[in-house]
Amino acid sequence: MPRAPKEKDQIDQLIDQLDLSGITQDELFGEGGLIKTLTTRLLNKALEAEMDHHLGYKKNSAAGNNTGNSRN
Predict the structure, then answer these.
(1) Contact at 8 Å (CB) between 35 and 42?
(2) CA-to-CA dists, residue 22 to 9, 12, 18, 28, angstroms
(3) Is the pLDDT of residue 14 over 70?
(4) How far apart are CA 53 and CA 11, in angstroms?
(5) DSSP one-letter string for 18-39
(6) For residue 45, which phi and psi values (nearest 5 degrees)?
């Protein structure tokens, strides 16, 4: 019996939105390329979310003021 096609998740949908036609290998994998930029932004977003969770409030929120547990 043939397997049902896998349903696309959000990552597949994001990748489908990328237009990579005409992009060079350097633009994709180079120092300032797409892969490095996406990795940097993803890691920064994850670290920010971790800090929000740890402190119990979002960046620039007044919730941490004068609690002894505020961001610099």
Answers:
(1) no
(2) 26, 20, 12, 11
(3) yes
(4) 23
(5) ---TT--HHHHHSTTSHHHHHH
(6) -65, -40
pLDDT tens digits for range 17-52: 988 999 999 999 999 999 999 999 999 999 999 998
* CB contact at 8 A, 17 and 11: no
Task: Let me know: does 26 contact 33? Beta carbons within 8 Å.
Answer: yes
Question: Residue 25 corresponds to which tokens in the numbers above?
Answer: 């290998």
Which tokens sit at 65?
């003021």
Distance CA 27, CA 30 (A): 6
- Name the more confident of 39 and 70: 39
The model's pTM is 0.66
Of 13, 10, 37, the closest CA to residue 23 belongs to 37
